[in-house]
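Protein chain data
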Amino acid sequence: MLIGKPALLINEMQKFVVDPAYAGFPALAKQVVERRIAEKISALAAAFRKAGAPIFHAPVRGRPDRIDIKGNSLITALSLKGQPIPPGDPRLDYVDGCEAQEGDIEINRTSGIIAMYGTPIDAMMRRMGVETVVVAGVSTNVGVPGNVIMAEEMGYHVVVPEDCIAGTDPDTHRIILEGQIKMLARIVQSEDIIAALAA
């Protein structure tokens, strides 16, 4: 399952994305809470740290002027509505359990929807000898399949812990997993990866 050196990529587990008190997409935040993915990602990250395997956090922390965002899709057009979140705002923080810890790698991006594209993640992983990328976080609708596709295209083996991702609703989650992601990545449960790391 974990071929060669693995790395964990945690996508956008931030309050303004997945905390029901702040999230712009309430249905996604509801699924994150109901599926308890923050708790499961926390346990998975702890296993990666114990194994000495790298963890990449991929938050979005936009420029206040938003000059690098183009409203060429529904999701980017929606992100241009309303006021930008200023630097240092607590809404940009990670949700409880998914905070970056000492030794973790944070790759902040100001725009774009795919962390594996247009960021230093690929170059850093290659320098570190990573062969398998484990993708966790949100969302099954956009960010997770986007990162899976990019990682696979870049030549990595990709593993998706199904209990560490969430979409806007259970049906969409299932359809994207079964109709798309399973063609590109191995779909497992986080306990399978934790056991593999321990072994």
Summary: Strands lie at 5-11, 55-58, 105-106, 130-138, 157-161, 165-166, 186-188. The longest helix spans residues 37-51. Helices lie at 15-18, 26-35, 37-51, 74-79, 121-127, 143-153, 170-179, 190-198.
